[in-house]
Amino acid sequence: MVDIDDSRTIAEEQLAAVAEMMGIESSYTVYKSLGLDARQLVEKAYDIRLTDPIQYLTKLGVESVFRFILTHPDMDHMSGLDRFSRKFDLLNFWDTDNNKEIDADSWDKSPYRKEDWDCYQQLREREQSPKVLRIHRDQTADCCWVEDGIQILSPSRELVADANDTEDYHHLSYVLKVTYANRSVILGGDASKKVWGDILEYYGEDGVKADVLLAPHHGSIHNFHKEAMEAMAPDYIIVSVAVGTDYAYDEYNRIGKVLSTKWYGNIVMTISTLGHIGCAKQFDR
Ligand SMILES: [Zn+2]
Fold it and tell me: How far, CA to CA in Å, does 47 sit from each of 20, 124, 265?
């Protein structure tokens, strides 16, 4: 699971928060007075920066990507898509039936790049290279996931319609359950509380049990659905979150062991053929 957001720098306004979190307020002030920019400060004071997924996959020798899943059409989930699609051969592209539009005048003020949005709009039209799939709960298809043990918990067609009506695209986020060797991982996308309630009601407590959860919406408290999280009862909760951004640590910590990217860097979970779960972290802390 790769979070595609390729931002490698920290916004200036987040720096003070980072410094405080790291207990380095005084050196932060010194660095500031030396005129160091955000990136230099991060290098000196805090060693975790988000990894560029393109560099990460290139180092692993990846040339083509069998399945690219865009959980929902928010820019923080497709930042770098233009570079990504040029670099790798994309075979299948999982999209959603969303009606999102972005005002052409808004890019000036946006931290994101228009090229990525334009690239997405072009990819959406494709029938091959990549083949675009828009799939829903309970749908079966002869390609792409049955053999891989991927179950689509969400969205349902109703949730897609709801998201399009309300323009809250977290309602149509993909939520996937991947099962291997009797172990399950739930990838929560940015699913809203409404989605979690719907999933719990539809599948029941037994249907949502998982060993690992990728927390929805970067661990935001607004997407934390207590009953659903308790029913999933994962041993591990991975939070994909950047330095300087807060998340619901206390709430998730009551559910299972929390591992965040802002603390551990890249986190790679593996499941052996015998069902043993392994966890490799970029930084040991
Ligand atoms: Zn997001």
Answer: 15, 37, 9
Cα–ligand 1 centroid distance for 153 (angstroms) = 18
| Centroid of ligand 1 to alpha carbon of 217 (angstroms) | 5
- 12-281 to CATH, choices 3.60.15.10, 3.10.20.30, 2.30.110.10, 1.50.40.10: 3.60.15.10
d(CA 174, CA 195): 10
CA of 218 to the centre of ligand 1 (A): 6
pLDDT over 70 (residue 44): no
- Give the mean model confidence (pLDDT) for residues 118-147: 85
Expressed in angstroms and rounded, the spacing between residue 173 Cα and the centre of ligand 1 is 10
Compute the mean pLDDT over every residue in the chain, rounded to the nearest whole number.
87
**Structure-token match 């999102």, residue found:** 100
Expressed in angstroms and rounded, the spacing between residue 5 Cα and the centre of ligand 1 is: 9
pLDDT at residue 142, as a whole number: 61
